[in-house]
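Target protein
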Amino acid sequence: MADTAGHERFFPYESPYPNQREAMDRIANSLARGQDVLLEGAPGTGKTLSALVPALAHARDEDRTVVITTNVHQQMRQFVEDARAIASEEPIRAVVFKGKGSMCHLDVGYEECRSLKETTRSLVEAEADRRELAERSEALLDDVRAGEEAAAEARAAVVDELEAIEEEIEELESANVCEHYRANLTRDTEAFEDWLFEDVRTPEEIYAYADERGLCGYELLKEGMEGVDLAVCNYHHLLDPTIREHFFRWLGRDPSEVVTVFDEAHNVESAARDHATRTLSARTLEGALAELDEADDSRAGRARNVIEAFLTGLESAVDDALGFGEREQVGENWHDLDVANDDRRDDLTLAFLDAYEGGGIDTEIDLALQVGEALAEAYEEAYRRGETTTRQESPTLQAAGFVADWMAEGTDLGRHPMAAVRRDAGTDEVYGRAELYTAIPRRVTEDLFDEVAASVLMSATLRPFDVLADVLGLSDPATLTYGLAYPEERRRTFAVEGPALFASDREDPETQATVAETLANVIRMTPGNTLCFFPSYAEAERYHDLLGASDAYLDEAGTPTEDLRRRFVAEDGAALFTSLWGTLGEGVSFDGDDARAVVVVGVPYPNLSKRLEAVQDAYDRVYDDRLDAGWRYAVEIPTIRKTRQALGRVIRSPDDYGVRVLLDKRYTRAGRDMGKYGVRDSFPPEERDELIDVATEKVEFAILNFFADLDAYDGDPPAP
């Protein structure tokens, strides 16, 4: 059994929230058994500390490191606050790690940075050798003057070495080096580590510290991470296998010495899918052909056979997949085309094989890889020696690697071959790309969860647990659920018997009038602000314009939201219209009057797309014994999780109160007659039990009664 009393020394506040102590105890016991944990806790129930406190205690006892990760920027800031609070009570060594791009003083890529470091280190080492040889030369000169016979010959050999080192240094000094990293290697930086662990430092603070001193903070941080108690990072440091290997090495830990904690873990599925997906554009293939034409390599001709045939196949597959008039509609964003077939290889592969006229695909792919590797090494050497100002990548290596994967993995159940097209803004030319889309994310996550000591995945919306475990490849995890422990009388959740807002019905004027009137009533009867979530930004804009209120805020796609959020919460009685698939639907707190009501309009299914169809198809094939597995895993469950996340923007503390409104017939009991489109039963049982069905014309009275019972109105309540 775990030391369930000892871990509370890491709890930084006076007393835990309701259920928090029990959660910490259960997680401590699971970690002691090496068992993964799935923790679902309602917003405001203290999930982060519930996981972090026992994880840190376990790591301290077992000489391990805790890595806590999120893909939500605001949660990263919360982790820093929690870590600082813990460190004030129980000394811990913690680091907050971001990618090189956010901490580097030079605008260079990863490979360029690596080359710069190698050259810089070589220069510093050569300068050290020069100093040592100069000292030996001076000492031998004294011996020569003292009449030692062997000293003259020995000194001559040292002088020869010194001249060779001088030539090497002269050559390296003309190459590309990083002066910030050079300062790291040549100056005393011990003060940095003392400063680093005096507090929990943010990447921005580390950058500023290093910038003031002409140092490279990114490399200093990497060197100071070994054996820390806690590391805070982004998802990609764990989900990308290559980055993860480096990251664990910087920590000085084997994977079995790491405990991972994933926050907002309902996002791991899509994040893992994105990390595993690979693409290759026609532009890269064209670059590879141009590179091979210039290459002085006997293998280049045979390498060209396979690269050229794949480009021809891609162009042919794209042309065939584009419908009548579709090419003219293509814009500057990638437009997906499905080239997969149920009964044979995908159309791109078939077109590739038809175009290929070489002497063996596998052999010539291997030759293309060899040529690409040789060219990449030559480019790196040229950059290191200062012959070029940027480190060139080899498109041949990129193309050959992708084609090799395409042929090897194109029939894998977890991979889905796709193509896409876009229009070049400069030339107006439409060109394509091939994509190995990863439909099943467990091919990325299963290895991670198998190799680390244990993992805790937490979110307000993880259920159903069995589906999450299947999708991510978790074996027999412990499952914990903690709902809102706050008084039920301080919240209401209404399922409104309004129109079922299928996409085909959204243009109906009568439907729009009913939804707009219901929204207006919710906003008018709410003493405080109202959040309105829609299936898309277009629908949010539609109802924002229909209501036409002066204190209505519209969140638009691609615009920064933090300033909008600040202006909105400064109001009283305002409404914010946004997409449920935007950035305000999760990870953002609206406390107290910041949001007293939240409305989810419609069932916000994601837009039907080629890749969503691919995910559905993959789940149907992998779980062919489960009825509608593709629909449930790929569409219904992610949609309900998003809906539950949106509802969680209100009721954030024991003293909070508010109303949640689900505006669509499919959430009501009557919606159960609509087959798989009725979603009431997709909610967890205790949340489903709180749903109160109400007619559209009764919503304003229901909200009035709730807030009046709490004496929430400042003066007389609005008239219904």
